[in-house]
Specification:
about 475 residues; mainly beta; 7-stranded antiparallel β-sheet; 6-stranded antiparallel β-barrel; about 35% strand
């Protein structure tokens, strides 16, 4: 999920900054009674206004004219510190004047009374939110609810009259090759239309996270985040979410079906409660299956267990592989992620898992979920681990970290190249904890030509890597 959020921030357009002496809090959540006043009218676009379709498809310009009014620009103000970390400028009155960043994203109207969906990272910690309609009218917006897990936020426009609302379709029938439109406000240029196809479905983004992102080659740029992805019938089938860090024509949208599942709860309570097991996990690849001595690719491999969590009290350990939930086989990590995403606090869940090749069964009671920032891999103030070899074992040079060993460099032609990355923190080697750079170096040297099973922390997320010897 952290990789997704980092990539998603690339979709937000930042418009510069200016010093302000004080900021009012205009982005507070509505009270529960106000939430219940939210619109309940169905969202629809009057299809009868479209000219007759030729060959089963609406003429593109006519389709764009129909859907463009539901797309909005979301402008936010947020306080930041100076880039170099120095204290903020001081006003003539001797008070600290925070630096204010202006950013833009996109969104779309889902109810005539002025409910707008956008991405949660577009809102972030903004203290002011303004939404501009396609006719250039602007309204102050308040946050009705947000779900950081899905990266969705629901806004309400103050004083907005009856608005045209989007038709929300379904992402389930989407196939690679289907035509799609993206409308948003990239780079602050104003309403912009791009066209493309669905390149792939069910793309995973982050360990243990949502597995079903839609990939498209329709151009998505900074400022498009939170905007709608339309199908050829003018229905919203996704929300523009992220740009691939290193590719062109590779962008991702959150499937609308995921949003529709949580929308009623988001409107009513302002948040989404999910059952918490307290584990991180990843897909079992073929190399990992061999390293774990599994009969084949199966299940979800536990990479980390949160202290004092249901998973910790149950006795889960990193390296356990969950193979079934409530009697349903878990062949892929995404199936476990989906089951947990649909669970609620207090649910009792029957789980089967493998440890050391043996099946184990347990029942666990889920707790209320609480999003947290995973602890980053931090370097201790110690020196680099010594090595006697001209070429470090497995090509890895590491130093001490607060936990494990921090990878400082990797030889390009070494067995670890393409598996480990500089900045990874190696926590375990072949099931045993790593206690610093020197310990990792010594154990890599002793491993010789054996295959390795590493547990590493990368960008705040913990995962297993299988490194074959050469």
């Amino acid at each position: 999920m952290e990789r997704l959020r980092a990539a998603a921030w690339a979709c937000v357009g930042f418009l510069g900054a200016a010093p302000l002496a004080a900021c009012d809090d205009r982005a507070t959540a509505l009270s529960p009674p106000a939430l219940r006043e939210a619109a309940s009218a169905p969202c629809s676009i009057p299809r009868e206004e479209l000219p007759p379709a030729a060959g089963g498809a609406w003429p593109l310009p006519a389709l764009i004219e129909q859907v463009r009014p539901v797309v909005v620009t979301v402008a936010t103000l947020r306080a930041t510190s100076l880039p170099d970390g120095r204290a903020t400028p001081t006003s003539p009155f001797g008070r600290s004047a925070p630096r204010v960043e202006r950013a833009i994203g996109s969104g779309f109207v889902i109810a005539a009374e002025g409910l707008v969906l956008t991405s949660e990272h577009v809102i972030g910690d903004a203290f002011g939110i303004e939404v501009q309609l396609s006719d250039e009218r602007a309204f102050e917006a308040t946050v009705v609810g947000r779900d950081p897990a899905l990266d969705v936020a629901l806004l309400r426009l103050r004083g907005a009259g009856p608005l045209r609302a989007a038709s929300l379709g379904s992402s389930a029938p989407i196939r690679p090759g289907d035509d799609v439109l993206v409308i948003g406000n990239p780079f602050g240029l104003g309403p912009t239309v791009t066209r493309g196809i669905i390149s792939a479905t069910s793309r995973p983004m982050g360990a243990g996270g949502l597995d079903g992102y839609l990939q498209t080659d329709a151009a998505i740029n900074p400022g498009n985040s939170g905007g709608p992805l339309f199908n050829a019938a003018g229905q919203v089938i996704g929300i523009a979410t992220a740009i691939h860090e290193g590719g062109r024509g590779i962008s991702f949208a959150l499937p609308i079906d995921e949003v529709l599942e949580i929308l009623p709860e988001l409107r009513e309570t302002g948040r989404v409660d999910r059952g918490r097991l307290g584990i991180s996990f990843q897909e079992v690849t073929s190399p990992l299956a061999r390293a774990l001595r599994l009969p084949g690719r199966m299940g979800a491999l536990i990479t980390e267990v949160e202290p004092e969590s249901p998973g910790s009290r149950l006795g889960f350990r990193p390296g356990d592989v969950i193979t079934s939930v409530e009697g349903r086989r878990v062949d892929h990590a995404r199936e476990l992620a989906r089951a947990l995403r649909r669970s609620k606090p207090g649910d009792e869940v029957k789980i089967t898992y493998k440890r050391g090749g043996a099946d184990r069964r347990a029942t666990v009671k889920l707790e209320r979920s609480a999003l947290r920032d995973p602890p980053p891999g931090r370097r201790a103030p110690d020196g680099r681990a010594p090595t006697d070899a001209e070429e470090p074992p497995f090509g890895v040079l590491a130093s001490d970290a607060l936990e494990g060993a921090l990878v400082e460099s990797i030889s390009p032609q070494s067995p670890a190249a393409g598996h480990l990355e500089v900045g990874d923190v190696v926590l375990d080697l072949n099931g045993a904890p790593v206690r610093g750079g020197a310990d990792l170096t010594a154990r890599l040297l002793a491993a010789g030509r054996q295959d390795l099973l590493l547990r590493v922390r990368r960008n705040g997320a913990t995962r297993y890597l299988a490194v074959p010897a050469r």
